[in-house]
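User: Predict structure, ligand carboxymethyl coenzyme *A.
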Amino acid sequence: MSEKGEREIVRGLRDVAAAETSISYVDPKGSLYYLGYNIDDLVGNIIYAEVAYLLIHKKLPNQRELDTFNAELISEMKLPEAVIESIRATPKRCHPMDVLRTEVSRLGEYDLDANDRSKEADLKRATRIIAQVPTIVATLHRSRMDEPTPSPREDFSFAKNFLYMFKGTPPSNEETDVLHRLLILHADHGFNASTFAARVTASTNSDMYSAVTSAIGTLRGPLHGGASEKVMDMLDDIGQEEHVEEYVQGLLDNRKKVMGFGHRVYLAEDPRTKHLRGMVEKLCHRKRTMDLYRKCIKIEGIVHERKGIYPNLDFYAAVTMDALGVPKEFFTPFFTTSRVSGWVAHTMEQYEDAVLLRPSSKYVGTFGSTFVPIDKR
Ligand code: CMC
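Assistant: Predicted complex:
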């Protein structure tokens, strides 16, 4: 409250700590920790299922626990028949994020333990949701190609199965390694907007499907996870490498945002960027598309010089997914297949906190409006 008794607003909730969390820490100086582990120590050393386990169980699994968890994820990948039918029936003009939002919500209708809100049931539910989101994404992609979705294989890791089901052919070791790294880097990120949306929903004691549905709708926006698709639009629009300078300077001259740049929390470079940039360089080298890589480096240089800001997760993630053969409208759904593990972890943490997240507002409307009946208005 101000001295006059007026509520002060914190625009955009910048720097407001809304709750405690022990799941991840976004250090403004340019580091990211999952349960205390620096992501630099995780990327390349573990697989995505280990990170999903870490987030929801709050500890890294040993080999036996990982094998059991991987098997559980694979067995839970199967979707209810009605959900498969519904995915196939969606018009092709719908954005995949629309379909994902609806179908995750529909999954709640088929949860036979819906009324069991014990911790054990929530943990099982969290595992099932982590497993089923990638299947929705793969099934949608395959059905839009008029192709069947292969069933997951027990000899593949969970992440490898996702790419296998999405593409229809077993991924190479290099593709699988890239996917593990990509998913690990996307898994959690403090109180980002979609996680906060999930936590607000969970804070009303609503169910996990509702929390994840809220989060999907929030992730979709271009200021958040929807940015990666816009990054690819921009790279396509720029065309040849020699057009970068004019295009990017033009955006900045017109006070337009360069998608995939800037961050609310980081004051230094986003710690995920170096991992993704390195992967993109290797992938472009192998695919002989180094002009694309050089384009990205040029954009980085111009934006940093003019605005002092760095690329965020979405910039190089877009090029990584493109190199994996993912169509750009599926970039944000790919992000979702990983961030869902963070959402369900935060949902369970919010249930434990058991406090309603309900901020206040500063009223700037009028008082004393005189009521007029409808026939007199
Ligand atoms: N391009 C050009 N200028 C920018 C950009 C950008 N992408 N981002 C921030 N700025 C400028 C902004 O214009 C402002 O400059 P000035 O002080 O001269 O007016 C200054 O940097 C501060 O920006 P802000 O809008 O106050 O920063 P914010 O914390 O409110 O916004 C953001 C953070 C991520 C929404 C914003 O940087 C943005 O819109 N970026 C583009 C969309 C994007 O890439 N989103 C992905 C976010 S991170 C990963 C994820 O969540 O998926």
